[in-house]
Specification:
It contains 16 helices and twelve strands. By secondary structure, it is α+β, with helices and mostly antiparallel strands. The strands form three sheets. Strands 2-1-5-4-3 form a five-stranded antiparallel sheet. A five-stranded mixed sheet has the order 7-9-10-12-11, with helices on one face. Helix 2 (34-60) runs antiparallel to helix 3 (65-84). The protein is rod-shaped.
């Protein structure tokens, strides 16, 4: 419609000029002769021809370059003729108009036919307009050559043909206007439909964005090694703003040990490879507990290209629950192993003394009156030894149970460590009088007044010395050394016995745990567990160095304590 408005306005102006010239030419010719009237009539014919050609060229939008140039050339020729009619004699102008008229009519007819073939609105009326003008010109030419008689119809044939041409061209304009309106209505309806589609698309995008923003997974889109999209859940999990993530990414927020593996996974996905299952990584947060995230990824279309969609979940709670479950399973496995060892130990350690007691009882019952006094004494000693052995084992089990139930108490007092160590060595020798070991005690000077718990120390070193002697069946030297080291008192029990295999040192202090190389040496596996519990209660550490066949060395470090409100030297030494 906009391209049509210009030619219609220009054509209308030319047509008004032609009508005005015709209106002035007729009365002037009647009053003053035919010369001026002919000039006005020729000028009107020329203006009418120019208007028709310009209108046809602009109106039909001819897609034939040759026809378009021909319409333009003839329009200029008609325009020049219209101007020349105002200044030149009527005869040459008449012949010029007569020559241009059939050519213009034929050209207008061709333009209308071409437009009709192209299904342009109003093209048929343009063709009929050219045909009407051509008919008027042909009738006038036949009159001049005497073929047709001179009368009102033949004399004004060109004028009537031109008027009919104008009417048909205006019908073409009306047809084109109606077609343009229909096209405008269709375009408007299409625009409304497209607008509705765009609105629906925007609403759909808004809904999907709302879903993506508040879905349970954090989502990040990476394109060309740059983060281009971050949803709201990702900011909550990473505890960072969208601007920070878009600018600095998210990989640098992870634990340093996990960054390389996650970057490699993302590169593999971009190369078309299929990485393994979702990977768990650690998220470092300043001054906050570490989070565990589970990452997955996939290739998605993004802004005309490809993007890497990285999605992740906060699985900290699940990870901690798995750790707790795993720890519970391990505890249960340890309990099962402990139960197995306990059953094996009790079945062995109780059976032997019970068998000894039962055998001695049967001998006394059957032959008591005939046995010499010394043999009776030996049998009673066997019974007392068996009972003492079982009583000691039960006491150890009860003591370990008290320690694990936190029923033991730390009750320190002033002690003379040299005297205590000497007493411990004597007792250890007396309990195993048949041992070939040489048991020695070395206590550095200045340790005669120490704030310690005597009962816990007897639990610790009584068991360590007993084990050192017991697991040195070939004899050798067993030594207890005590010295001060900075703010600690250090105890060391060493032997030259069978030692402990390297792969069993980690479980050495577990209850009922015995080394695999003990052979037939009796034991309950409780001594080291009791010693470790007592050292922990005393606030110290217990370490072991050992190799199979090369003896063992146990080192106990206890902090040098001072009594709260006590003065050294005023408490009794037990």
């Amino acid at each position: 419609m906009e391209s049509l408005q210009g030619p219609v306005n220009r054509g209308t102006s030319l047509w008004l000029l032609a009508v005005l010239m015709l209106a002035l030419g007729a009365p002037y010719a009647a009053a003053q002769g035919d010369t001026v009237g002919n000039l006005a009539t020729h000028a009107a014919y020329a203006a009418s021809g120019a208007w028709g050609l310009v209108f046809a060229r602009r109106f039909l939008f001819s897609q034939t370059p040759t026809l378009d140039r021909l319409l333009l050339a003839q329009a200029w020729a008609w325009t020049v003729s219209a101007l020349a009619a105002l200044y030149m004699p009527p005869v040459p102008i008449g012949w010029t108009v007569t020559a241009l008229a059939p050519l213009g009519a034929v050209t207008l007819l061709l333009a209308g036919t071409s437009g009709w073939a192209q299904r342009q609105p109003g093209a048929r009326y343009c063709g009929l307009a050219g045909l009407a003008f051509l008919g008027g010109v042909t009738t006038l030419a036949l009159q001049h050559h005497g073929v047709l008689p001179v009368n009102g119809f033949t004399t004004h044939a060109v004028l009537m043909g031109s008027a009919l041409e104008m009417a048909l061209l205006f019908l073409a304009l009306a047809d084109h206007t109606h077609a343009a309106r229909r096209e405008h209505a269709v375009a408007q309806a299409q625009a409304l439909s497209e607008s509705a589609m765009v609105l629906a698309l925007q609403q759909s995008q808004a809904r999907y964005r709302a879903v993506i923003e508040h879905v349970g997974e954090g989502m990040v889109v990476v394109q060309n090694e740059q983060v281009v999209f971050v949803n709201f859940r990702a900011t909550e999990i990473l505890e960072a703003t969208k601007a920070d993530i878009l600018e600095g990414g998210f990989v640098n927020r992870l634990h340093p040990d996990d960054r390389a593996a996650l970057s490699l996974r993302m590169q593999q996905r971009l190369l078309g490879l299929d990485p393994a299952e979702p990977r768990q990584v650690r998220l470092e947060l300043p001054h906050k507990p570490m989070k565990w995230l589970e990452f997955g990824d996939n290739i998605v279309p993004w802004d005309g290209g490809q993007g890497l969609l990285v999605f992740f979940l906060d699985v900290t709670a699940r990870h901690n629950a798995e750790l707790e479950t795993r720890a519970a399973v391990e505890r249960q496995q340890k309990l099962n192993a402990l139960r197995t060892r306990f059953i094996a130990m009790t079945s062995h350690e109780f059976r032997t003394p019970l068998a000894t007691i039962l055998s001695a009882q049967e001998l006394l019952q059957s032959y008591g009156e005939r046995l010499p006094p010394d043999e009776k004494t030996e049998l009673f000693g066997m019974i007392r030894s068996g009972v003492s052995r079982m009583t000691g084992m039960l006491e150890r089990i009860l003591l370990l149970g008290q320690a694990e139930a936190h029923m033991l108490e730390f009750r320190p007092q002033w002690l003379d460590l040299a005297a205590l160590c000497y007493d411990l060595v004597l007792k250890a020798k007396s309990l195993q009088p048949d041992s070939l070991c040489v048991v020695l005690s070395e206590c550095a000077p200045g340790l005669d007044r120490q704030w310690c718990d005597a009962i816990l120390l007897r639990h610790i070193f009584g068991n360590l010395l007993s084990n050192a002697i017991k697991y040195s069946p070939s004899g050798g030297e067993v030594r207890l050394k005590v010295w001060a080291e900075q703010a600690h008192t250090v105890f060391e029990v060493s032997d030259q016995g069978i030692g402990i295999p390297d792969d069993e040192l980690g479980d050495l202090f577990e209850s009922f745990q015995r080394a695999s190389n003990v052979g037939a040496i009796p034991g309950t596996g409780l001594g080291l567990a009791i010693a470790k519990q007592s050292v922990d209660l005393h606030g110290g550490t217990l370490q072991v160095r050992s190799r199979a066949g090369q003896g063992s060395c146990f080192t106990v470090r206890l902090a040098a304590l001072e009594p709260s409100g006590a003065v050294s030297g005023f408490a009794d030494t037990p």
